[in-house]
Records
---
Amino acid sequence: MSFGRPPSISQGFKPTPPDRGSFPLDHYGECKDYMQLYLDCLRKNASNSTPCRHLNRDYLDCRMNRGLMGRDEWKNLGLSNLQVDSDQAEPPDKTPTAGSS
């Protein structure tokens, strides 16, 4: 009898890639500002995503640029009909302004 390890270890472990549509969590908050802008837009529009699609595209672009998800074509993500600026806009600075009450 063997104690201390599961029997599957002796057969070898074979990692598998995540299912399509799942991707690693943003542990370091690299795209948190983009995500927050998108979620705020959804709240303001009663969860209607149509007016927020450009923010969704910015968020996914941030994730792809930082290796948090695999690069994919916009048409596969349902966002091919949106205009893209050559320079991706950075999210606004969220530091509080002086003199606010």
---
Amino acid sequence: MTVNAIQKEKCTGCGACVCVCVHRAISMEPDQEGFLYPVIDREKCTDCGLCLLKCPLSKAKPENRTEPEAFACYSRDRETQLNSTSGGVFTELAIAVLSDGGAAVGARYTENFAVEHAAIFSEEDIPLLRQSKYLQSDTQRIYAQVQEWLKKGLPVLFCGTPCQNAALRCFLRKEYDNLIRCDFICRGVASPKVFRKYLDMLESDYRAPVQSVQFKNKDAGWHRFGTRITFQNGGVYYGGRFQDPFMTGYLERNLFLRPSCHQCPFHCLQEGDITLGDFWGIEKIHPELDTDKGTSAVILNTSKGRAAFERIKPRLVWANCGTDEIRTENLCMERAAKAGRNRRKFFEEIDRRPFYELAEQYASPSKFHGFHPRTFLSGIKKILRGAQE
């Protein structure tokens, strides 16, 4: 049996099967929704079953977990805090590993603004991995590369979704003292195809290619984050968290998450040695730690995670807290995000209609956020007209 025995809607697209196949019989190919799935070359496949054996879905629960410790914190370096998704803890962990001559592995944008997992070996490259990308990441053969570095004795920091951490765990088959696995509180990954159509819409109206994308931009504050996209002609697009069509479709309408994300077995497991996230609600629990520039929730799941955190503590402003305090406003720790009621219709029309029309019909913000759905399309057109003036 092969990974084809796994129901498609349960496949996370982690890519572990590709890495483990010694016959190079498996490749990851996008489906109609733009998500990567394993495709088996039957001429190369020997039905050895190794791909199914190493699939993280076959062994979802991590071992050697201890009672977790939790913290609220942010980097003492203001630039690190401001330019990170939350409080900059990943950057501080990466600095520590890189200073030991190791590798930091995480998600970065490609030239075409797809997302892939890659390694860096210099502090100068940390911005490539910093900040949330929200898209399905292409792992290619990163797990095999991580294993190679570990066997050579290099310290490695791996950061990815809970399912990607599970994939690495299953691929390696053993614990490495020189590996720190870091996951994050995840609500699901979005379709790269949808994101590309969103960027195509903006590039068409700004009349220039995208130069940079920054989700969770904090120019208006961490609590009122937005999406800031710059273009090669100097143009700048900014959409608030409740007005930008891509973020509204992702955060509020659940239109284009991967199908497996709606029934994810990993979201509540805290797969990594360290689990990171935004500490939403910090203003109620530790108001002294709310600078509106980002506060991280940190959960230490293993003794290895505790040791790594102790090392960077002097570079952080921190306070102890409980995991229940983190869960209060991070609902995805408790349950997977439900599929939006218009998800199927959205993807049925994704190849036939312009993105802004789909956004108007299916991703318009609710009145609750002070932005009436009927004004959504006119608001988008106003933004785009401004780009042309």
---
Amino acid sequence: MGTHLFADTAVLTGRTLRHVTRSLDTIITTAITPIAIMLMFVYVFGGAIDTGAVSYVNYMLPGILLITIASGIAYTAVRLFFDMQGGIFERFQSMPIARAGVLWAHVLTSLVANLISLVLVTLVALLMGFRTGAGVLAWLAVAGLLILVTLALTWLAIIPGLTAKSVDGAGAFSYPLIFLPFVSSAFVPTASMPGPVRAFADHQPVTSIVNAIRNLFTQQPVGNDIWIALAWCVGLLLVAYVLAGFAYRRKIS
């Protein structure tokens, strides 16, 4: 059964990846928005924001990486929505295909597409002056955390992809996720925020994730941030996975 699932998932992932490679503007568009935000904040607002000894591009890159992921997963929901509307799922149900493989194909495609976008954004950041003395282990930790965030948000995107009534509804859920980094430590230290806003910023998941990635890049102790970030990501992943599976079973039953 496990081999059957892996083989079917590999075939279906190849199908969805071909759709992405035939429409590279999707990945480019996903990367353009965070790159534009990064350019604006670094060259327009960066000089007015005190981030201490850390250059502003170094300070805000972790938040930009999260915005990149949030932008990319909207396309996962849209691709899934079009598959549902096009009757692809009904045709799959008439074939001896592992049911879970259909969703996992979209998840793995999202992971690959988002990793490409993250690399593009990081390369632009390097051209803008981003520098880090982080070693291989620190880079692997950053990559692992970003992959975990991508998986959690992608499974979250599966839910509107299955349940939305329109393509706009399928993609619109990502807007709050793109906005969330702006009310966190991603762009300014939370100490500069008014009391209630600071309380929200300090305790929402983006802040712990951003702080953990930033400390890994700057070779600072990650403290509790890494554990809080992992707890948020794993918790969201499990909840989204269960809800997505429930929505899928209802849709195909």
